Amino acid sequence: MPDSPRMTVEIWSDVICPFCYIGKRKFESALAQLPQHDRIEVLWRSFQLAPDTQTDPTRNAVQNLADKKGWTLDFTRQAMADVTERAKQVGLAFDYDRTVVANTFDAHRLSHFAASHGKGNEMAEQLFKAYFVDGQNIADHGVLTALAVTTGLPADEVDSVLASDKFAEPVRRDIDQTRRMGINGVPFFVFDHKYAVSGAQDTTIFVQALQQSFAECRSILHR
Questions:
Q1: How many other CB atoms are found less than 10 A from the CB of residue 218?
Q2: Is residue 118 predicted with pLDDT exceeding 70?
Q3: Which domains does the chain possess?
Q4: Are 104 and 98 in contact (CB under 8 A)?
Q5: Starting from the edge strand earliest in sequence, which strands make up the sheet with 195-198, in order?
Q6: Left if phi > 0, otherwise alpha if psi is -120 to 50, otherwise beta: which for 132?
Q7: What global pTM score does this model have?
Q8: Are 144 and 106 in contact (CB under 8 A)?
Q9: pLDDT digit string (tens) for 135-189?
Q10: 13 φ, ψ to 5°?
C-alpha cells in the first residue's frame, strides 16, 4: 500500500459564472499552500446557470442581465462593477462589455473530453478566460477547437467531439447529481466526498478544508 494518499476535489461550475472563476483563483491559492498539493486531483463538474440560453453574438452579459432582471443598463453596469473589482483582487481582468451571450453545454462537453486526456484544469482556465477576459463566443465550435488546441488537444479529435453528441451524457449526469445533492448555485466544492464548500470563499476556508480532508485521508490510509 502506498505511503502517500491521494484525494479528490470536485468543483461544480459554469463557464459564465463569475464567482466560479474567482473561486478557482482562491482555491488555487489555497492548494499551492498545501505541501501535498501534487496529491490532490481536481475534477471539474458541469452545471448550467441558464440552460435555456440562446447563443447570441450580438449581445453581451450586461444587456442580457439587464433584460432578465428588468434593470437599467446603468444599474446593471454598477452591479457588475462590484464583481469586476472582486475579480481584480485575485488578478483577473473581467471585461463584461466584450462578453458574448452563449449557451455553455458544448463548452461543458469539451471540458469532459479534455479531462479524459488529463487536461481538465487547463481547459477550465481557457474557457473562463475566453468568456470573461477575451470576449470570445464559447458556444462557437471554431473558438472551442482553438482553445482546446491551445491546451494540447488534437484538433481533429476536438472537431469530432463537437460535431457529435459525445460527452453529453457526462454533462447531464453532473447536472442531475447537483439536483440530488440539493446544489442550486455554483461554485460548489466537494473535498474527498466528505466536505463541501459553497461559493467563492476566502482562501483560508479552502486551506482549512484541504488540510482537514487530506489529514483524514492520510489517517484512513495508515489505520
A1: 15
A2: yes
A3: 7-221 (3.40.30.10)
A4: no
A5: 40-46, 7-13, 188-191, 195-198
A6: alpha
A7: 0.94
A8: yes
A9: 999 999 999 999 999 999 999 999 999 999 999 999 999 999 999 999 999 999 9
A10: -160, 170
